Amino acid sequence: MKKRLVILTGAGMSAESGIATFRDSGGLWDKYPVEQVATPEAFRTNPELVLEFYNVRRRELLNTKPNAGHYCLAELEKDFDIDIITQNIDNLHEQAGSTRVIHLHGELMKSRSTGNELDVYEIDSKKPDIHIGDKCEKGFQLRPHIVWFGEMVPMMVEAEAIVRKADIFVIIGTSMNVYPAAGLLHDVKTNVPVYLIDPKDVSTNRYDIHHIKKGASEGVEELKKLIK
Ligand code: APR
To answer: Which end of the chain is more exposed for a tag (fewer CB within 10 A), N or C?
Structure first.
């Protein structure tokens, strides 16, 4: 029986693929105040700006590749029963070959109906933009399939259940600033080892965390040696 390895990833996981993090200096939120581009209110008052913010990131993602950290996590599926719970909206874990990925904050390569949030659509990489006037088959305006600030995180229930069953819990590339995602650490059983891969210190409420103070690519290689 393979051990259950549960991995929570954030923007730092994709940093070595060239995607800006949110809160590192020069991060995404420095350029675009979150209130202007990542809230339902912003979409109501200035939909073109919000749609363009995600169109730019979607086009960027089409020229972005997984890094060695993504590939190493995918390879670990040979030795562990792995669930990846990511805050990232890119699809680099999937591109690298990970098969069980939960996107807590949505997915850049998907759109959804403003009429029914359950009507979700794959975005064709040949037509990556969403514009005002792009409608679903029921005639509702399409929006990015992203969880904006102030919106519910529908996958949290499933994520909590998975974290509770973990034999090993790993945090990679997240400042643990945003809830409820950061709260998943509370669902890890006290006897379960927790590893953190991040070049910086990250404040959490657990004091028994094994901190691998490296970037994702090097850090996952080191993690592999520690857990296999
Ligand atoms: N490898 C690993 N970690 C890295 C690397 C790297 N190469 N470079 C930076 N980091 C770390 C930073 O030290 C930081 O702790 O990645 C973390 C990035 O933190 P944030 O920029 O806050 O990103 P994240 O935690 O994913 O943000 C969570 O906030 O804005 C919302 O919805 C957005 O999903 C996002 C959420």
So the answer is: N
60 contacts: CB under 8 Å, gap ≥ 6: 19
- Report the number of distinct structural domains present in the chain: 2
From the candidates 70, 93, 103, 105, which is the catalytic residue?
Answer: 105
Q: Which of 97, 126, 146 is the last residue before a domain boundary?
A: 146
166-177 mean pLDDT: 97
What value does the mean pLDDT of the chain take? 95
Using 50, 70 and 90 to split pLDDT, how confident is the model at 44?
very high
Cα 174 to ligand 1 centroid, rounded to whole Å: 4
Measure CA of the first residue to CA of the last residue in the chain; give whole Å.
14
Burial class of residue 161 in the structure, from the number of CB atoms within 10 Å of its CB (0-12 exposed, 13-18 middle, 19+ buried): exposed
For residues 132-145, give the mean pLDDT. Answer: 97
Write out the two tokens for 143: 């929006």
